[in-house]
Specification:
By secondary structure, the protein is α+β, with helices and mostly antiparallel strands. It is built from 3 helices and 10 strands. It has an 8-stranded antiparallel beta barrel with strand order 1-3-4-5-6-7-8-9. The protein is elongated and about 80 Å long. It starts with a helix and ends with a strand. The relative contact order is 0.18.
Length: 260
């Protein structure tokens, strides 16, 4: 029993020594890596123009209803934290407006031209994106949370909303995913301009329970309602300025913030 105990203690001591060596090695590697790398922050202004598509499988399969693409736009800013040179986390806040229209023929419609129902949505998009930058190009992906503060509609086929408000038919917020890619056009050491494309897909149904009962966004069979998901594509241009560098030159020194 005593021999077994001593063997265990000996094994544990050897393991502890090995662990100390591994930790020391990792610490040295971290120090060396830190001495040749730097992190920094950047801020930017960005804007974009594009279009959206309110996808509902039931509506999409209906040959009598046609989607009409309408322009949308966005404008806002971002703040980014850059680390390990090629990797970045950004937080975007964007004011976005987009429009979706449908042409259709209401029951009993006798006009030669189809009726047009059009929606306009306005609100804020907040995105937390991971971005990788390599060889003058970038790729980004991350979650998006959107709020709809303004909802308007017009319909040449009649008023289908009253006595409700149009805002009662649409969810107040939505959650989705964004993905984009692009490249840097020109810049200096701490200033740059980039352009690219950004695609978004919203996971939640845009219609509230009241909206489903009121045929939002447009006609569906009685007792049936499939979810409506908004898809968007934007051409984006952004202007970035690097304003702070966190540099660690030697192990044991405090990290310092340099502002340019």
């Amino acid at each position: 029993m005593i021999d077994r105990f001593s063997n265990i203690c000996k094994f544990d001591s050897q393991t502890l020594i090995k662990m100390k060596k591994i930790v020391l090695t990792l610490f040295v590697l971290l120090c060396v890596s830190s001495s040749f790398s730097q992190t920094w922050f950047d801020i930017g202004l960005k804007g974009g123009i594009g279009t959206s598509f309110m996808y509902n499988s039931q509506i999409f399969d209906n040959q009598e209803i046609v989607h009409k693409f309408k322009p949308g736009y966005t404008f806002g800013g971002k703040i980014g934290f850059n680390f390990i040179q090629e990797h970045q986390i950004t937080f975007d806040v964007m004011s976005t407006t987009y429009t979706q229209a449908f042409t259709y023929r209401p029951e009993g419609w006798t006009e030669s031209n189809d009726a047009v129902r059009e929606y306009t949505f306005g609100g804020l998009d907040m995105l937390l994106m991971y971005r990788t930058n390599r060889n003058g190009t970038y790729f980004e992906v991350g979650p998006q949370w959107s709020t709809y503060s303004t909802v308007k509609y017009s319909d040449t086929g009649g008023d289908y909303v009253s006595p409700q408000e149009i805002s009662d038919l649409v969810t107040k917020s939505n959650f989705g995913m964004a993905m984009g890619f692009g490249g840097y056009i020109f810049g200096t050491d701490n200033f740059g301009v980039a352009t690219g494309l950004r695609f978004t897909y919203m996971f939640n149904d845009m219609a509230t329970e009241e909206g489903k009962e009121a045929n939002f966004p447009i006609l569906h069979a009685a007792g049936e309602s499939t979810p409506t998901h908004n898809l968007g594509v934007l051409f984006v241009i952004e202007v970035n300025y690097d304003f702070g560098y966190l540099v660690s030159s030697r192990c044991g020194q405090r990290t310092k913030l340099f502002v340019f």
